[in-house]
Amino acid sequence: MRILLNLEALNDQQVWNPSEYHKVQGFVYDKLIANTEFKEIHNLKSYKFFCFSNIFPPSIVKKGQIRNLLICSPNEDLIKSIFSYIKNNIIHDKVVNIGEQQYYIKSLELLEAKIIDDSCVLRTSTPVSIRIPEKAYSIYKIHEEDRKKKFLYWRSNLSPDIFLALVLNNSRSKYSQFYKQDINNNIQSIIQSIVLLKEIVIHIPIDGYTIKIPASFWRFHFTNLNNEYKKFLNFMLDTGIGERNSAGLGFLNVEEGARISRLVRI
């Protein structure tokens, strides 16, 4: 389930820096989730089960223009709680600060994105970050010169098959924890193709210093989807892929094969 915020700019503003996910994260955590019954979610040591997009489109915005922000989660209670808080407290007339940018929430929508066809195309709208743990170096045949202590971030000098295996394993783990059931181990059979679109390094401040994290954008084509696989891919759409989803990484949109339903519009 998803929330779409339509944001009206209160003044002329600069292009949003795509590395500044922590500023959107601050808004989502501190101004939205912190005012719901899910306010302790930030302290969980396990998966948070939500993700959010960047502010889009990512171009210079003039006063009065509209930008958008999406928040998603497979936890419908979390999404409905956030939606209710926005509806009852900050839509229309309260200034929303996201980093140095100021907006009014012009409108608010509750959406459901569901894969319904036997094939689909998914694309990452924010970059994906994934790590290879040191104990798995031999499994993935990581060359000695590429190995680092504790873990190694996937980068394009490594095989995309490694990236795919890591992302699917990560999503499998989240799925099992959320639904208390496992997904078919043959999940890789539904992958028709994956395409690396772009590779970047993002900067995330943690405890007073900034860490640099290699990340990448992708397009995935899935085929031969039965109901179990559709449920798994819908879960990926709602929770994001890779690591640090609750920091806005790994947000997915669907390009083909899904139905987007508007449940509520305010």
| Distance N to C terminus | 16 Å
Look at the structure and give the mean pLDDT.
Answer: 92
Q: What's the Cα radius of gyration?
A: 19 Å
CATH architecture of the largest domain: 2-Layer Sandwich
Name of the CATH first level of the largest domain: Alpha Beta
- The succession of helices and strands, N to C, reads EHEEHEEEEEHEEHEE
How many domain units?
A: 2
Helix-and-strand structural type: alpha+beta
Beta-strand portion reads: 25-35%
Can you tell me the overall shape?
globular
Number of strands: 12
In helices, the fraction of residues equals 10-25%
Quick one: biggest sheet? 6 strands, antiparallel
**Are there runs of 5+ residues with pLDDT below 50, and where?**
none
Number of helices: 4
- Determine the CATH topology of the largest domain: Alpha-Beta Plaits
